[in-house]
């Protein structure tokens, strides 16, 4: 049986644990950098500490770095996990996902219940595709992206590395969402969104540059 350890111990990590329960995958614990969390139980699952605290498990567990929704944190956790010699988890795909066999899903990514992914879709590593997302043909989603629940991506959309697409938003066909950009919840995107940009509204407009912060 596969044995997982999940980075994070907050709300999304608990949802990942539930996904593992649905898939009958054993979760040995959560990882959390906050010293006060070590030793606590979250939904009956222990918080084990950091990678240093599970050194003895290095060769028996898979690490889920996408236990947090923040793309930058996912990237850092993935870097630390690989540098420490741990194995990144294979994709987690809920049994009630509709997914073409012609799609590609990268290492460490997860696709949650009710998502539909049609044809010739490429998903990078450590991507979260949340509940009820609908992703159409020939879409490309790069590493560390987070797709919130209920998002709709039309065909031939490109989502750059580390982008965050908020709950219930929609992206028109052939649009590009830039790297490390953010789309506000409920937005309708009808044109390209530059890198390091926040866009929101119906239709979505640029609200601010994120690389200025």
From TrEMBL:
SUPFAM superfamilies: Trimeric LpxA-like enzymes
InterPro entries registered for this protein in UniProt: AcTrfase_PglD-like, PglD_N, Trans_hexapeptide_repeat, Trimer_LpxA-like_sf
Pfam families (alphabetical): PglD_N
Residues passing through the membrane, by range: none
Gene3D superfamilies linked: 3.40.50.20, Hexapeptide repeat proteins (2.160.10.10)
Superkingdom per UniProt: Bacteria
Domain PglD N-terminal: 3-78
Name of the protein described by the UniProt record: Acetyltransferase
């Amino acid at each position: 049986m596969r044995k997982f350890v999940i980075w994070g111990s907050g709300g999304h990590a608990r949802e990942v644990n539930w996904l593992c329960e649905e898939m009958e995958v054993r979760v040995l614990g959560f990882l959390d950098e906050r010293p006060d969390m070590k030793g606590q139980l979250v939904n009956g699952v222990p918080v084990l500490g950091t990678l240093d605290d599970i050194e003895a498990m290095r060769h028996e567990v898979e690490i889920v770095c996408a236990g947090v929704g923040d793309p930058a944190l996912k990237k850092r956790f993935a870097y630390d996990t690989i540098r420490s010699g741990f194995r990144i988890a294979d994709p987690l795909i809920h049994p009630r996902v509709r997914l073409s066999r012609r799609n590609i899903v990268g290492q460490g990514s997860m696709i949650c219940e009710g998502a539909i992914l049609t044809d010739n879709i490429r998903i990078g590593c450590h991507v979260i595709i949340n509940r009820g997302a609908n992703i159409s043909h020939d879409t490309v989603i790069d590493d560390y992206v987070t797709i919130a629940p209920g998002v709709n991506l039309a065909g031939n959309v490109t989502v750059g590395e580390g982008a965050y697409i908020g709950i219930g938003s929609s992206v028109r066909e052939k649009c590009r969402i830039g790297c490390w950009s953010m789309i506000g919840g409920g937005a309708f995107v009808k044109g390209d969104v530059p890198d390091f940009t926040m866009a929101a509204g119906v239709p979505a407009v640029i609200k601010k540059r994120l690389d200025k912060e």
